[in-house]
Amino acid sequence: RAVPVRRGWGLWQMTPSWAAPTLTPIHRAGYCAFYGECGRNPEVNISLVPAKVPCLSNTPARVATASVLNLLRTVCPELVRGDGETTLVCCSLSQLIALRLSVALSGTVLSRCPACARNFANLYCNNICSPDQSLFTNVTRIVNRTTVLGKPQLAVVEYQCFYGQDFADASFASCRGVRLPATGGYAIDTMCGRYGAKLCTTQRWLDFQGDKNNGLAPLQIDFQLVPNGTQPGDAVVPLHGQAWRCDQALSAEEQPCSCQDCAESCPPVIAPSDPPPPFRLGNADGALVLCGLLFGLLALIFITALLCRCRRSKGDPTPQPVPARAASCSARLSDASHYVLARAFHRWGTLVAGHPVAVLAVAAVLAGGLSAGLVTLRLTTDPVELWSAPGSRARQEKAFYDQHFGPFFRTNQVIVTAPGRPSSRYESVVLGAKNFSGVMSEEVLRAVLELQEQLAATTAWAPVAGREVTLSDVCYAPLNPAEPGLGDCCVNSVTQYFQNNSTRLAMTATQTDGKETGTVDWHDHLIYCVNSPLSFKDITALELSCMAEYGGPVFPYIAFGGYPGEHRYTEAEALIVTYSLNNFPPDDPRHEWVLSWERRFLEVVGDFQRTHGPNLSVAFMAERSLEDEINRTTGEDIPIFAISYLVVFAYIALALGEYTTWRRVLVESKVTLALGGIAVVLGAVFASMGFLALLGLPSSLVILEVVPFLVLAVGADNIFIFVQEYQQSQREPGETREQHIGRVLAQVAPSMLLCSLSEVICFLLGALSSMPAVRTFALTAAVAIAFDFLLQMSGFVALVALDARRQEAARFDLCCCCGMGKGGPAGPGARLLRPLLRRYYTPLLLHRLARPVVGDGHRGALADGGWVPPQDSYMLQYFAALNQYLAVGVPTYFVTTGGYNFSSPNGTNGICSSAGCAADSLTHTIQYATRFPNVSYLAIPATSWVDDFLDWLNPTSRCCRIHQFGNLTGKFCPSTSNDLSCLGGRCLNTTRRPTVEEFERFLPWFLHDRPTLQCAKGGLGAYDTALSMDANGTILGECRVGWGVWDTLGCPADPPLFLPPAPPSPAASRFMAYQRPLRTSQEYTAALRAARALAEEITATLRRVPGTHPDFRVFPYTVTYVYYEQYLTVVAEGVITLALCLVPTFCVSFLLLGMDLRSSAATLVTIAMILVDTVGAMALWDIPYNAVALINLVAAVGISVEFVSHVTCAFAHSTQPGRVARAAEATVNMGSKVVAGVAMTNLPGIVVLAFAKAQLIQIFFFRLNLIITLVGLAHGLIFLPVLLSYVGKTPWGWCLVPSVPSQGG
């Protein structure tokens, strides 16, 4: 029967005095309030430790016996009097043993900060053993009990404890910042119940320690904090003991708490400067203003030069004859070389036209033979292989990480929201009022639990393995990796707070808190767990654990999303369910298992989404989803590409013909010739890819999509130039058909050679890029364009000869067996584009008033400064939810390579963050960085196996023990064992750093010790995969003396010849931190840059530790770095690649245009402007600049050459007297061919791509290629003629070259 105590005996200011003379009548120094043990507390149903309570005993303190004194020196040294003095205590030996267990439990998490550990232990030492216990203790409730011998006893089940406010505050302050290295959080999170670290205060901290429902306190303790200078009355004297500050050392031999655990120990840290703000002038974009000013300056200079020129013209209106100039040596050499080229092409064309069938046969055999190499073609689909060079830093670091720690685990995730569902307010008897969002309802929780039960029960068929695969076959099971069951799988979700048990979710209980009684249910348990996720038992009457079914904690920032602020998790808008699966290499049979289960996962969640669609919004993804969606959309977009090319083919087939009358349409049609020309282009593409496949060069889907488009643009342009020039050319008297074809080829082939040679050299230089996809594309494009030129000079010329023979014989196209007789044409064919350009466009463009406007307008076109799922993809909804609700970023590992001696004291101190560790240690440095997440992009400090290993070794805990006798002598004794052989078998007898031998002996024990309540610091699950050890399992991250490196990131190479073979792999270790949520590629890139800078700082620090090899490194790694590394260099890479592409364009033009510097410079400037304007248009149309865009920009150089070089070459060939006339003739003659052959060939196919489902196609192929075509057309037919009309060279050169004779070979 519980005996209550009357309250309110007198007043202590505004606080009632709780002195109770009936239970603790004597409050005097040297007197106890209770003593000894009186059995188990009948009011505690579930306790994680024995809930034994003391016996009421308001009697004088006892003299400590020898056994009590010896143990007291270890547990409560402050209570031991000096030599010659008698030590009095109020606790028995059994109480002191129980106290040692409690101190050991707290010491496991607090021992890293000695001041906190000592202060916390002193609170309980004084409560239980102080000889002046009655001064600050007042028993308020007891129960009667009878011993087994029939002796009646009074057991204390509740008492009050009076502390001075300053003493209690100082004790709390010393512990408030102590970290838990395994989680990155604070130890106080586990010691303040529902409040967590953020809302914890001294009173709340002590209240939780005294709450009998917390699973650790054996009875109820009511802590009363008394302000300084105030006496509670009734002879009660608040405890005012010594409390060490966390920055104080307990003795000369000990160290103060470290900076990570104690802010007062931190040296002054200068906050890093924020990233510089955008450059602005007033409210305007600074770069835009400067570009505008530059444009204005150039326009002013241009207009001033025109005005001066006009004034000179008006001053002397009579044109003076230009004196004839003798041709220079370079001009004569150029004329001679052009004559040789023209004559060579004339002879070649005549020869091919004379033997068309033989030439076609040879060309077909060669192209077909090379195309046969496609059977060996390897398609690269792995994004890592596509965009990251094998020798890049990110690839090397990824290979090192995968080799030592295995591939990053696979993530399968479901995000559930409840749009439109109203929120509610819950009044908790114990925890107060809380708001619950619509998704935080029992109905939604049960639906999520139902989904998880379905996934746990589902199986997937693996056809190759021929077996059913369950979740336990593929899941990541950190605490039971050898033989996992379904309950061992790491699944993070809100229902894990109820261990995924529907019965526990439905539990209710009656709860009394003070004078209020009510019902507690899942709301109360959830409120408690989100603030204390590491608790093994809540403080409600439900008495449920917060730990997940698999044994680990569920941190609320992982299970909830979209909550409005810290610790307001019950108002979250989204529930996040995350399945972590093991990742296996592709050649491992288990790789098929995990893919099969993920496929089934997508099916089950898809069914769940359809079932609950009216009430819930369900977004989901599996690790395989990205590749699945790419393959799906690629397959679905193949018809779109096919239609695109068919439209292009149809246009070429119809546009090549030149029709005179309706009755001759079938004769003058060029469908067969067009199809042959297309076959030549495709033959060049297939031959180039087959040729490179034979050489072992892989290809990719991007190359298959871009290269045909590029080569078709180049090839179709040449087709139109040749065919239309032949159609417009009249056969000279006495000239045969073969000679006519040879003469036309001599006229156009140099221009084709100029463009093709420029493009081939351009792409060959582009192949110097470090990005594999860019390099492979450039090399494929170069070979394809080279083959295309050769096949056009042979196969297509032969086709033109055959078609000319057919047309002269008046045979029908597509059916040459039929015809209409020998009736000749009625006249020249109907033409639209050429007359339009000659009569209207060119006179307007080159008008003396229009030319300055065009020049200034183009000068003002300046640039503004990943994979996207298709619109019908479930991934689109998932990415939107992820960006909206995700509260924490991906894990970031700081990986140490070989060459560092962790086991030496200096090496240990260079890594750890507890007392005695270096102020600039690895974990300290990372912790400093998390203070400034806007700069470092790190949100949660790194977990540290070194710190937890040191805490695990601490002799005040029972984690590391050794069997002292019996069959297991010398073996590890787990903390859960009560074997007598473990008594006194601590691994270390004092708190110190282990020796090298101890380090290597005890570390494997630590890594395989499962965390328990008795020892929460066990390394299994948290750290067993954080180290890569040698074949013996004993060597850490250091290289043995004399050993060399075993890969590029370890210790030094070239081991001496006399040493035995090296271990199979070098040692490595990792320390896991968390990034803050990242949304854009710019943030991911900045996070990579910041992490590398931090790792380099740590590397420089650790290399100064004695014994560290100079080649030792620390590098950051996360799964996204290998994708975003390209953004660190893509701008410089793009500038260099495009510049290399422009150089051959200028050089070839300069050589083949008769060393005409002006025309060559005009070509270079125009192509450069096309690129600049294309990049500017990309910014305006939201096209990101990345490696895919760079591939298209490299292709844009080749297409720009087609737009520009033909017109420039025609300008150089022109025999008109002035620049304007020459520009007009070049625009009319060659511009029509460029429009028909390049622009009109590309545009129909590009427009069709707008209907593709894949956003990649829409953005990088429709938008970007449309921009390239339109911008190239505008510059080639608007800007370039005007530019040549101003700066082009006056005619002398090629115009003086005698024409190639039409007769003879």
TrEMBL record:
Chief place where the protein resides: membrane
Membrane topology of the entry: Multi-pass membrane protein
Keywords noted in UniProt: Cholesterol metabolism, Disulfide bond, Glycoprotein, Lipid metabolism, Membrane, Signal, Steroid metabolism, Sterol metabolism, Transmembrane, Transmembrane helix, Transport
Catalytic activities: cholesterol(in) = cholesterol(out)
InterPro entries listed in its UniProt record: HMGCR/SNAP/NPC1-like_SSD, NPC1_MLD, NPC1_N, SSD
GO molecular function: cholesterol binding
Transmembrane helix among keywords: yes
A Pfam family it matches: NPC1_N
Keyword Transmembrane helix: yes
Family, per entry: Belongs to the patched family.
Protein name, per record: NPC1 like intracellular cholesterol transporter 1
Species of origin: Strix occidentalis caurina
Lineage, uppermost ranks: Eukaryota, Metazoa, Chordata, Craniata, Vertebrata
